[in-house]
Amino acid sequence: MATFLHRLGLASYRNRGAVVFAWLVLLIGLGVGSAVFAGKTVTTFSIPGQESTIALERMRAEFGSGPSGASAQVVVRAPEGARITDQAIAGEVTTLVGALDKLPGVTSATNPLNPAAPVVSADQAVAYSTVTYEAQAPDITDEQRKALLDALDGARQDGLTVEVTGEATREVVGIGGPAEVIGVVVALLVLALTYGSLVTAGMNMLTAVVGVGIGALGITLLTGFVELQSTTPILAVMLGLAVGIDYALFIVTRFRHELLDGRDVPSAIAMAVGTAGSAVVTAGITVVIALTGLAVAGIPFLTEMGVAAAATVVVAVLIAVTLVPAALGFIGRRALPRRLRSGARPVDRGVYRRWATTTTRNRWPVLLVAVAALAVVAVPAFSMQTSLAQRPAEGSTQARAVEIVSEHFGPGFTGPLLVLVEGDEVARHALEVSSRAKELGDVAVVGQAQVNSDGTAALVNVVPASAPDSAETIALVDELRSAVSGVDGARVYVTGTTAVGVDVSHRLDESLPTYLVLVVGLALVLLVLVFRSLLVPVAGVLGFLLTVGASLGATTAVFQWGWLKDVVRAETTGPLMSLAPMMVTGILFGLAMDYQVFLVSRMHEAHAHGASPREAVVTGFRQAAPVVVAAAAIMFAVFAGFVPEGEATIKPIAFALAIGILVDAVVVRMVAIPAALAIMGSAAWWLPRSLRWLPVLDVEGAALERGGASAVPQQDRTEPAGAVGAHEEDAGHDVPSR
Predict the structure, then answer these.
(1) Do 1-36+195-346 and 350-396+508-700 show the same overall fold?
(2) Cβ–Cβ < 8 Å for 287, 311
(3) Strands, DSSP E only, in 134-256?
(4) How many CB atoms lie within 10 A of CB 139?
(5) pLDDT of residue 481
(6) Whose CA is closest to 409, among 70, 92, 112?
């Protein structure tokens, strides 16, 4: 692999103009294509083949209606001491309903005071109207939402308390907002400090942005042909930006190292791509394995999210091994700070040597303290709860509407269950279903059955006594299914938004162990091939388990328990999004293995050159740790940028990733792994004789050194035109030799 990438890097340098042009053409082409063919993302979750999903499809067939548009619930509460049914107040409610019915995009608004179908609380203090739009939630415009809120303001002037909730009120957050800007700015500052050169920092950032742009535009174009979740582009951009910057950082850092060792620009580029590029490809493959492995859950929307994010990572890898060397060919020796271009030696990073020396010398206490600290942080993860039900932000009109409905109707009214009954004599069967549902403990109300026009199906509305995301409601779904499964002569399904969420959560929880085994197993095989060792991959995976435990533990403490929620501007607390554990596990695993590869490969390289086990750890750490620290700082900044300003469903995931990166880089890879390798000694690099037939991936580029692949033909030993590092400027300065 190193030899192939060496040739690819040299070819990219030789044809740097064509390489840059090709990537720009692809970027522009995808931009035009996405502008023409882009579709809309969706905010609903379902699993084909699940009972709740099948029932929704059957409902549309039996009751003769296609998919309805998004809806909103306008909640009206009478003034203190008055009733919503009082003549004057009832007139105001009727006027409000008439105004709602005429709003742009609205197909209907129900009258809660209609005697045929009243929606009034038992104390007659509250009623709510269901406003249905023609469009689905992602297609509702800001102007339509504003018109709805303006209508509520008009009703409030009459002394009524009016709030609104529902999917039609949720804004679909796109990419390109403050979250991305924060991450990019901080990352650029870190790059500038790391390189000591604005030119190099800008080049690194520009290539990463090109990769993210291609990935994001590709996903946007795909929405015209495939139905994708609204969070998919955001996750892909968040991950693509982080790895794109980091992968370029590793290539550029090795390029600078090769320049300082006396190579000219073309051979330094080729060697950087052959060595650091090998580590980039290996790390990228690990991330792709982790993301595409999400398909084991058997949930189409999760598979699509994983594949889309993986595709963005693939683009980042290709950018790193082609566009980055091409760009380096244009800037030449300007990649070095001015003082280093003139022959000065870089400042010795003694702090990293002292860190590694202290860690390896006190390896047992250091390892035990690190493991114990992470285990403590991971404790809250054992009480983690998940749900697909999304709680509105505290203090918002949505939250106030839910609070009013829960107080006067009951918490279950915000997420009722629907029971579909099919077969002959459905009216009789529906009565039996209703009777069985009423006997269950957590049921508040069982509505009257609605029979379709030809008498082949009936719907029974079952309102839980608990909130949609509560453990009681989750248990009720299973109890209700068991209770109605034995109705003879009828097919009975339990569905509704709450039931769909429960089904998806069940599938995710069941799939997580299988996913871990699969991804960890494949990654172990890959790492064994990379390091030709058994213990190093095992140590890396065990370190990852500490990382993900601490990450999910901290996220549970903040977003579920409410600790320090104001610091991260958490809008609400409660169960985490059902997607979060598996998604965070997959992304963190890939990124953690990135650091394992980049850090340990330099230690392996030092050991292969004859250093003692402990000295190899110190030497490799001193060489790789500065880059890993910079890479982690950048990735932390990108993920953390989505926490204060990100969309509500993304915040916990971004927080978990930011904490995970911080923990993995600072504690696991910088403390626990060096200590563990020092304890293992020579055994760390042991491979059983029975496995020595395995292919050699050669991440460190040993084949390049043995075969002299770094030699570059004389005609290629030229600097790019106009580069500051031209031979005239370097005249009179001695360049350190290897």
Answers:
(1) yes
(2) no
(3) 161-165
(4) 17
(5) 94
(6) 112
pLDDT digits (tens, 9 = 90+) for 133-148: 888 777 788 899 999 9
Long-range CB pairs of 214-218 (<8 Å, 24+ gap) are 214/23, 214/26, 214/27, 214/30, 214/315, 215/240, 215/311, 215/312, 215/315, 215/316, 216/175, 216/240, 216/312, 217/27, 217/30, 217/31, 217/33, 217/34, 218/30, 218/34, 218/311, 218/315
What distance, in Å, lies between the first and last C-alpha atoms of the chain? Answer: 24
Which of the listed ranges 169-173, 350-354, 356-360, 515-519 does the model predict with the highest average pLDDT? 356-360
SS (H, E, C) 191-213: HHHHHCCHHHHHHHHHHHHHHHH
Per-residue pLDDT at 737 exceeds 50: no
SS3 732: coil
Please choose, from the candidates 206, 250, 216, 253, the residue with its C-alpha nearest in 3D space to the C-alpha of residue 236: 216
Q: Cβ(737)–Cβ(40) under 8 Å?
A: no
pLDDT in tens, 439-451: 998 999 998 888 8
CA 626 to chain centre: 26
b/e 9-31 (16+ beta carbons within 10 angstroms → b): bbbbbbebeebbeebeebbeebb
Contact 152, 162 (CB under 8 A): yes
What pLDDT is recorded for position 64?
A: 61
- 543-to-159, 255, 633 alpha-carbon distances in Å: 60, 30, 19
DSSP class of residue 456 equals S
The DSSP bridge pattern shows strands 386-387 and 576-577 to be parallel
For residues 35 and 45, what is the distance between their CA atoms, to the nearest angstrom?
26
Contact 668, 546 (CB under 8 A): yes
Spatial distance between the Cα atoms of 96 and 128, rounded to a whole number of angstroms:
11
Residue type, 708: G
All structural domains of the chain with their residue ranges: 1-36+195-346, 350-396+508-700
Closest CA to 152 of 415, 401, 395, 405: 401
Torsion sign over Cα 422, 428, 429, 435: positive
Is pLDDT above 80 for 42?
A: no
- Give the global pTM: 0.83
Query: Model confidence over 86-107: pLDDT tens digits?
Result: 999 999 999 999 999 999 999 9
**CATH 1.10.20.140, domain 1-36+195-346, yes or no:** no
To the question of domain 350-396+508-700 being in CATH 3.30.70.270, the answer is: no
Are the beta carbons of 268 and 259 closer than 8 angstroms?
yes
Reported as type and span, the H/E element at residue 361 is: helix 350-361
User: What is the pLDDT of the chain when averaged over all its residues?
Assistant: 86
Report helix, strand or coil for 319.
Answer: helix
Percentage of the chain exceeding pLDDT 90: 46
Please check whether residue 30 is in contact with residue 215, taking contact to mean a CB–CB distance below 8 angstroms: no
Backbone angles phi, psi at 109, to 5 degrees: -140, 120
Expressed in percent and rounded to 5, the helix, strand and coil fractions of the chain are 65, 10, 25
